[in-house]
Each structure stands twice: as structure tokens, then as C-alpha cells.
Design brief:
homotetramer; 358 residues; alpha/beta; Rossmann fold; Dihydrodipicolinate Reductase, domain 2; 6-stranded mixed sheet; 11 helices; 21% strand
Chain lengths: 358, 358, 358, 358
């Protein structure tokens, strides 16, 4: 029954990630989308008019006629808000809403590296959620974040290797889709028939976020992983799907076959939780010679799987491979929803006490 | 006057690289294009009919009506042939022509790693031409090759660093244009809105050819450079221009500023030879934050310069940068012509003795 | 139960349209895909190896390991074959199979204009199936065809106008996706950042096929519609979805509103037949200012709907509009399957008598 | 000598058309670019910093370090300003400057249809310049405009047919490049792998501007041509070059051969004026089966020629053809400069009397 689902709202609902949140939440078994929130410019208009809808699936009927609200108009009953805000808006709005008692499940980058905020990828560091017990800056609500879209693909691929072999150094060159820049985002004049070897602030995120995610929870803080990451981010004329070309140096040397076997044997540590958005297996190893390819493979597992291919020895590190992540689903909207599902399962989303675990 | 120019022919004249050779040779001050050679299928037809011309500049008028010939019909007087053959055709044809007395200046990959064949980039290893004095397999003519299109960009960028700091290890991820695959080459269904993380045989070339080019001439052979290279090659929906994302570990540690200064101070060692196709400066350092970009910068220096940007520290190697090479000009047709210009200047192309230096 | 489904085979199963046929037939409620047929080059290999799979959905598991057969090896029990052959192969193979007793449901162009062959679009001219009763050239089997991919979109859009207002003249300029050319089809070097104002044989098809489809069955033959069509076909860098820019002159003048109302009121004449692949409504009128757009709207109705937008007065004809058809689904694979569904419903596919209606 | 050239300024110098104006004026034999004008946001910065340069040719050295000025800071001595303003800015600024005595040579759409303003294409309607003698609204300066980018291609193609056969009706469907929308203009998310069958206000311009241009000067006004035009404008993922698919009904029926011969025989009526930007022949008839194509042919004649191909009978009108115009050169920046050259030659640009002809 509908009333048994947890009422939620989406902040930044008209943007690219916001649209994916709307699409994924419109029929979610645990969450009931009650409100679409956007800037004052859009507020008051029906969602279908306020949005420039960019997805091949039509706007969900249950949302099309919803009136867009401002953050001041979040309906009664909603205690969980998904944030697809840009960093600037998030800086002001997310703390305000958290301090007003909301659970903010955010895709924004602003508070990812805040020492009290979980930077969560459920298959990788579900235990980091415990940080919430000590997250005082945003009480009585809280903020939980998911990483940068490329980071998620990288840490999902690296996690099994970290557990089995240890990680020493990672070189990663990305080929990133234009949807990662939002709408209107990248100008056609910049990217048609071209590639751009620079994405503002992207390499810093790829070089720092994984250290926190792959780090250890020590009491009230995260001890970052002892790992060096060097990143080069490129924009390419692809719609969805970030490709990561990775060379990795392990702590305990292993050949390409051992690494492939490690991924094939990998089982998600949250497989038993029954989270609706969790893929059966978060990592899919592809054997085609030229896989993974964004257009053909980014959508696998409803966009929640990371595909890996081209596993082979590296003349400089130990092993080379190519990984692919659907940047707006696994790398953004789906990531936030999976985080919220984990939080619900773990008891952090009870209605009476938004910060229930505290 | 025309008769003072050296008569030459182009093998594989209807392909993509062949078209660039035709375009560049049509008005060359030292060489006179006397014949366009292609397969039996094209032979006998006017060039303008036999070719599917793909370049924005129209077919040179002096060539448009030339009758396409077979390799058996090379006109009297021609002793230098430029080869834009595929590897399979080159295997049979290049040795046959060389042994018939022709100087074969080849872009094909087949004989690049032959120990007696110079793998030549004039700014980098002009002295390797001396191998010709001992090249017996193909006498009385000879074969001289230029490297793979991506390799040329890489070695031009690396050479000044090798001389100043020494090279220990290089990781390179390429984003390569579709013109590198020839015509018809890459299917639109494979590359529209997509990238392909694999190019057959490309990574092997990038990992081995530079070792020979950057190696030392020791008597009658090349001692390969002591350097490890790890490569990942990607195809991207770009027409011309291969982008190389490079991380380099030096023998003598240097910071990004020292590396930038090294490139800025670099002067071509062949600058004084007056070779018509040699760029004033083979390396151009760009300071824009998102440069180099294929569409905007590949054509600089008539396509013969390598552009470098994004020079910065690397968390794993020492320095990271991005280099760009026009794959069909500097990386293929222009490379072969520059090789022939060097050979002419150095006395290897005298008419009476095709293998004059021997 | 599986045995209750009609066994079928796909000819040309490794091509683009063949892949869509495989995808759509793998789980079809009425047809059981028993064999994938291709050229001798592919025969004997597992389908997953023989095919270069180009669709975002993975190869259906039930087909991946099937051994590709030649047309000589069609299994016992199969009497219906779907043909996705090119015109040249169809010329020889389709009559041979039909004369051997098979029902050939073809997407190939070769026999579309044969006076005894139905050129069928179930919503438009289901009665033309009656031609089979007199189709002697291919007995004891038969050939039924669907039109060219652009033609299908055009006739579906025109049919309601023909019935209500009559048609006098049509000007159509198409923007056609690369998948329409098959694989490898269009070279990336021809279409990246470019459009090509010519598609071989396409305009002729667009100018003639609709006359037959919109014509009247008169005894044993079709009286072509009295209608002039002028077509310009362009190839554009789009993966799927042909866009048709149409200006139409009606027999009984009508304004844009009347035409829009006509489409909105239109109901499929085969809606009651319960054909599994028939869209609920074959025409969808879109009201967004810049619709239809291939990427956003071609997939509507599982790719079986034609979308129409930009309905407005025309300064030369009467009304202008833009229509969109998914070329490989509604315009090819889905069209053939819908034809077969109609034939089954109408009793033309009984197992004992391949040409049952005759 | 430099001082003999007429000093000019460019309004809107940082936009796409502004960049082409800067590129074309930097080395112009008659005009000396003295100032680059942009909005207050850019003013005071060196041009190379204020602009996001998008052209493959580098910024002209003579302009790179110029300080961007506001319209209030046009240097002494400048009396001719080229306007690449958007319509909104043009509405206010162009009349103000004209009334201050400047000759405004504008690419903006705002005043094109003003009855006193020449809408000029020198090869087509050079006599319309005479309107300036009566243009009182903007005295003591004046405004002269060039048409919409697609319109210019259309009228150049139609003019010889109008003169020889008369024109009754024209249907045109365009495939327009993204550079026509300026920068950032079209979002990559809207156009990658897609086409958009709508461009705001474009069809109206294509349907009305040609009537004025092809009209007759009658005393102080233009009598519009008696001609119906129906237009459909599409945006396609092409960088430069608008393709026009045209069907034309003539006053005196002619077949495709007669029309082709008409274009081949056509000589520019301004050929004898020696205008530096005038192409030798404004119309180039291409015979390749799939020409003209934007990437290969838009740049012909330095971007100032209109290419025509696919001339053939039309089943609805009389003749069909495809024309191609470089939208930012012949369709914008080059058009304005050619207009100014004609004005200079005809004596409308004398320094003492900005409105000299009046």
C-alpha cells in the first residue's frame, strides 16, 4: 500500500540527475515521491512544464502534473530529501534542511569530504554510515553523500582488489559523458567531433574521494586509505557512461588472471539486505575484446553495474583494465537512492526521529 | 622548374593517408608527383574517379586526371615511392620494389621493427638513417619507415625529456581519431555517441616503437631505450587528431615547471636543414586550461606540430601532460614526406644510385 | 507452452535488422525462434560469436548459443521464415524458399513492387493480404513484404489524411539514421559531424512504395493511389529513428487544426485483433515545440508508434508536419513481425498448409 | 599603407560571428580593425582572455592583446561598425549608433525587415542600397543588414532561376549547423546523436526575407517578390554549413537540365567591382552524387560560395536540388563584410560623411 512507503522529496528535480531521481523514485517500492523541488524560477509550474525532460522514458505520469515547490514548501510528512543540487546551492540549502530535521541524501559534492559526513557506496563502505552517530554539525537531521560519478566506478572496481591484494598506486584516465556536466552543460560547439582534456575539479575528486571511501572507520573518523591516485579527466561526445582506463599497482603483486578471478569471485557484501536498487552483482566482467563500451554496456543491471574489461598486465603498474559506470544512474541518482535504501534498512530513516541512529 | 624536382610516386594513393600524400606532394618544392598507384581494382581510372576524396581541400588539379597505375606501371624516372599501403600489401610489395631498386619511404607498419630499417622521426633520431648503409635485405633499393601515428606524437614529446632528465617509465592513454583507421574503417554504428577502448595492435606499437626510436645507434644496429611503456588505446568520435594522456617517470626527478621549461627551450636539431615540411618548432606548449583539443589544435603548424598542455605533477609518476598529434599529417603522410626530405638533404636519394649512401 | 508457438527462423540473422528480429522473437508469445540463418561464412558458429551484436540489450540467452545455420539447414517444422536479407541475396533465396513451401515474411526490397506480393502495413492495407490467394509465382509457399523504413512512417502518417481528406501531393525530406544502412554501413569518416544529402535508391522507394500501399485492391491486383510524391533523403549522424519533414496537399482542403484532429481521432483498424506487436495507437501526436526528436521519441510504444509534431499550415501545400519512425523496429523488424501476426490471425500461417489461404 | 584603410570596429566581437568578423577583418585590404566591442562583462580585458575562441585558426596576433571596449568607447576615427549583436542588443544599440553618425553594417535580425533598411546580398540586390538615400530613421548614420544565414544560401541559389524562369513557389527543408545558434548555443545533450526539427524564428525568416531581397526597388521602397515559400528548419549535429533541400516551382516550366545550365552560365553581376570578399563565382555546381556535404564543401571559395547539387526533376514542383551555405561566413560575417565592401565601392562609406550617398 502506498501509505506504507516513506515520503520523500527531490531537490533540484529539473536537472539531469534530478530527472533520473524522479524516474527512479516514481515507482519505488520503499519511497513515495511527494514533492519536486526546484529554484524559484520553476516553482509553481507543473513539473512537465518546468522541466526540459531529457530521458527517453516519458515523464512519469504521477509526477508530470505535480506543482514544483521551493525548498520552503516541502510538504508535511516528508523527512527524507534527495539532493541533486549544484555545489553552490547545496552549500547553503543542505545544512539548513538538515538542521531543520531532514535527512539529506545528497549527490552534491559540497560536503563529501566533511569529516563527519559519510561518503557512502553501500557495497564498499556501508560501515561508514556509523559516522552519523557523531554527525553534530547538521543535527537534528543529517547529511549523507555519494561520491563523484567517476569515483563510484573506480572504487567499486578497486574494492575487491584492495581486500585481496592491497592497493599502492592507481593511474586513471577517464573518458566522461556529457550528461555528467548537467544541462545545458557542455556546448555542442565544444564537443561535436572533439574531446576536451579537462573537466573542472574532476581530477581532484578522483584523487581524493576514493581515499576516504576506501578508508577505515576509526571511532568517530575515517582513516584515509594509504593509496596514491593520479587522474586525467577527459570529456568525450558520449551521452551516458564514464569510461575509466586504469593502471593499478598492488601491495601484493598479482597477475592479470588473478585480478580477473578476484572480480569474478567477488560477491556484494550487501547482497543479503534486499535493497531494491542494488544490482545482483555490482561488477560484471566482460570478455569481448573491445568492451566495455558506454552505449552498449552502461545500462547493464539497470545502470547499477560497473562493467570491467581489457584486463591485462601493465608494463608500469601491475595490471591494466577498463571500467565503465553509468554516470547519472550508478554514479548519481541511483547511488543516492541506494544509499537511502541502506539507511532505511539500517534504521536511520525512522519517521519520528530523522536522525534515528544517533 | 619542374625537371629539377625529384620524381616520386604514391603507393596506396586512394586511401586516407594516400590522399594526404597526394595533397602534400602536389605542390612540393623538392618532389614531383608523377604517379598515383593503387590496386588493380582502381587501375586505369582517372584518380578523381578512383578515389573517394575525403579532404576539405579539393583534389589537386594536377592529380585529378592522372590515370591510376598498378605497382607494375611505375613510370620511368621515378626512384622514390611513398607507401601508404596496409600492412598486408606492404609485406609483399615493399621488399619487391626495394629490391628492384626503389627507395621506399613507408608509412606501413610491416617493416618498422626490422633491425635494418630506420624507424625515423627526423627531429628525434636522424642519425638512425645510417642504418641504410648496412641494410642488405632490400638492396639495391631500401626501405625507410615512419612510426605509428600515436607513437610519433609520443616520441616528439618525450625526446626533450629524455635528453634532459632521462626516462624510466611512461603510462599513456590515447583518444584516437577515426581517420587513423582508414576508409571505410570505423563504422558509424560503432562510434556515434560512443568510444571504443580497444584498437587492434595499437598498444603493442605504442609500447615497442618508441624504444627503437629513442634508442641509440650502435654500429649496425639500434640499442633500444631502457624504458617501460604501458599503453591503453581508445577510439573516439573525432575526425583528426590523436590525444595522448601521459604520465612519465623520469630518471632524474623534475617538477612540472622544469618539464614545461624544457619543452619551451627545446629547439629542433634539424632546424638548420631547411626541410620544407619541418615545422619551425615541433613542440608547441599551450597554456589554455583545456588545451590541446583535436579540432582546435591538431592543424597547428600545418599539422606538423605536436601540441602539449595540462603539464602538472603526477601523484604516481613525476609529471602528467596531454599531447596532441595530427595523426594523418604529422603521424603519417607528413611524417613520410619529412623523412624523404631528410634523406634527400643527407644524400640518400640521388637519382643514379637509389641507395646512394650505401 | 512452447510447443504451441509457431516455429520460425530468421534469415540474415547477424545483420542489424536480423538482430532486432532475434531480440523481438526471442520472447514472442506466438512465434518460437528455432533457427538463425546467415551466410556460409557464419554458419556453424554459435550466434554470439558470429554476430557483432549492436543493441544495448544483451543477446537473448535462448539464442546466444544457437549454432548459425545456412538456408539449406532450416530445421524440420519451421514453415515461416523472416527475411532480413539484402536485396541481392533476397533475389535468389526468397523465391527459392517460397517455392519450397515456406512463408517468407520479408523486409527486403527486392519483391515489394512485385504485383502479386502484398506490401503490407497492417494498420493501412490489411486487405492487401488477399493478394496471396493469387500469388502463383512463389507457390506453394509465398512472399509477403513490408515497406522501406521511411515509407512505413510516411504511410502511417498519411493514411488517416487519405481517408478523411484525400491526398493530392506530398513533399518529403528525410533525415535518416545510420542504422538504416546496416553494418558496417556508413563509414564514420563520412558522417561524423556531417550530413549526406543522398541515400542510394531511397528516394525512388519513398516515391513509389506508398502508391501501392495506399492503393486499392481490385480483384487480383492493386490499383495505385493517385498521388504524387517528391522525396529528398538525407543521412544524418543519428543511431535510430528516421525523421520525415512533410508538406502535403490534400484533395479536400483542410487546415492544420483539422489535420491534427484527424490524427488525434484516428483509431487503428486492427486494434481489435490483439496482435502482440501492434501499438495501442499507431500515431502519437506530440505537442512539444521541438518534437519529435529521434533520441527521445523513436522508442515510444516499444518503437512501433509513429510520432507526429510541428503540425502547421504550409505556404505551398496545405499542411506541414514532422513525423518520426523507428527505422529498425517499426520500419523493419517490428514491421515484419506485425505482418506475420496479422497473417497468423487471418489464417495464412497454418502449419499444414504454408499457403493456407490459397 | 595601414592609414589608407578605413578604420572599423566589431560589435559583439566575442561571439561566434564576431570571431569570424575578427578573423576576416584582421588582414583585410580595405578595412582596418581598430576596436573589438563587447558587453560590459568583457570590457577592459584583453580580447584573447575575454573570448572563448572557437576557430581552428589562432586568434590574429594584431587583435589578441586589444583591450575589449564597450560601445561607449568606440575610438575616434571609426565610422563603420560591424554588428554581430543578438537581436535584443541590436534593437537598442544599432539605432543609437546610427543616429550618432555610424554606418552600422549588421548581421542582426532586428532591422532586416524595416522598410527603409537594405537587406543586402550584393550579387542579388545591390541596387537596394539606394534605399539609404531615403533612410531617415537612423540618420545621420545608417543601418545596412545582411539576411539570415539560411536565407542567403537560398536567395543566391534562386536568383538566377528568378531571372531566367521566374519563381512561383519554393519548399525548403534545412539541416542547419550548430554554429548558427552561437555560443554556448545548443547543448550537447540536445544534439549529440540527435536532430531537432525546430529552430526558433528561423522558418519565418526563411519565408519572408527572400521576398524582400528578391523584390524590386520602386522609388523609396521595395516591392516584395510574388513568391510563396514554405520552410522547415532542422538543427543537426554539424559544426558549420547549412544544407537546404529545395523544391521549386517556376513561372516558366523548365527541366532539371535547363536549371543546371542556368546555374552553370550564371555570372555574378558584381564580378567587375573587385570586391575583396566576393567569390569568383558565387554558385558552384557539384556533380558528385552525394554532394554538397557540409564538411567537405562549405569551405569552398573561402566559405563564400554556395554549392549546389542533386539537381533533378521534382514530382510535385518542377525541380529539386540541394544547396549548401557556410552559415557563419557567407551566411553572416563574410556577408556583412561583402556588404561593406560594396558600400565602400559605391561611395557610401566616405569618412567625412558617414551617410555619404544621402
Amino acid at each position: 500500500m502506498r501509505e506504507s512507503r516513506l515520503p520523500v522529496a527531490v531537490l533540484g528535480a529539473t536537472g539531469v540527475v534530478g530527472q533520473h531521481l524522479v524516474r527512479l523514485l516514481a515507482h519505488h517500492p520503499w519511497f513515495a515521491l511527494q514533492a519536486v523541488i526546484a529554484s524559484a524560477r520553476s516553482a509553481g509550474r507543473p513539473y512537465r512544464e518546468a522541466v526540459r525532460w531529457l530521458l527517453p522514458d516519458p515523464i512519469p505520469q504521477s509526477v508530470a502534473e505535480m506543482s514544483v515547490l521551493t525548498a520552503e514548501e516541502i510538504p508535511e510528512g516528508v523527512r527524507v530529501v534527495f539532493s541533486a543540487l549544484d555545489a553552490a546551492s547545496a552549500e547553503e540549502l543542505e545544512p539548513r534542511l538538515a538542521r531543520a530535521g531532514y535527512v539529506v541524501v545528497s549527490n552534491a559534492s559540497r560536503f563529501r569530504m566533511h569529516p563527519g559526513v559519510p561518503l557512502l557506496v553501500p557495497e564498499v563502505n556501508a560501515d561508514h554510515l556509523e559516522l552519523l552517530a557523531f554527525q553534530e554539525d547538521f543535527a537534528p537531521g543529517c547529511i549523507v553523500t555519494n561520491p563523484n560519478c567517476s569515483t563510484i566506478g573506480l572504487v567499486l572496481a578497486l574494492r575487491p582488489l584492495q581486500e585481496r591484494f592491497g592497493l599502492e598506486a592507481v593511474e586513471v584516465t577517464t573518458l566522461q559523458a556529457v550528461s555528467g556536466a548537467g544541462y545545458p552543460g557542455v556546448s555542442a560547439l565544444d564537443i561535436l567531433g572533439d574531446v576536451i582534456p579537462y573537466i573542472p575539479a574532476e581530477e581532484e575528486k578522483l584523487q581524493t574521494e576514493p581515499l576516504k571511501i576506501l578508508g577505515d572507520l576509526r571511532g568517530q573518523r575515517i582513516e584515509p586509505a594509504d593509496l596514491r591516485i593520479s587522474a586525467q579527466a577527459n570529456r568525450v561526445p558520449v551521452l551516458d557512461g564514464h569510461l575509466l582506463c586504469v593502471s593499478v599497482r598492488l601491495r601484493r603483486e598479482a597477475d592479470a588472471e588473478a585480478v580477473r578471478a578476484c572480480w569474478l569471485a567477488y560477491r556484494s557484501p550487501i547482497a543479503d539486505l534486499g535493497l531494491p536498487s542494488a544490482p545482483g552483482r555490482p561488477i560484471r566482467v566482460l570478455s569481448e575484446q573491445d568492451a566495455p563500451r558506454p552505449r552498449l554496456h552502461a545500462h547493464l543491471g539497470a545502470g547499477m553495474e560497473v562493467s570491467i574489461g581489457r584486463i591485462r598486465p601493465c608494463a608500469v603498474g601491475h595490471v591494466r583494465f577498463v571500467a565503465l559506470v553509468h554516470n547519472t544512474i550508478r554514479g548519481a541518482a541511483g547511488a543516492a537512492i541506494l544509499n537511502a535504501e541502506l539507511m532505511l534498512r539500517r534504521g536511520w530513516l525512522s519517521l519520528e526521529h530523522p536522525k534515528a541512529g544517533a
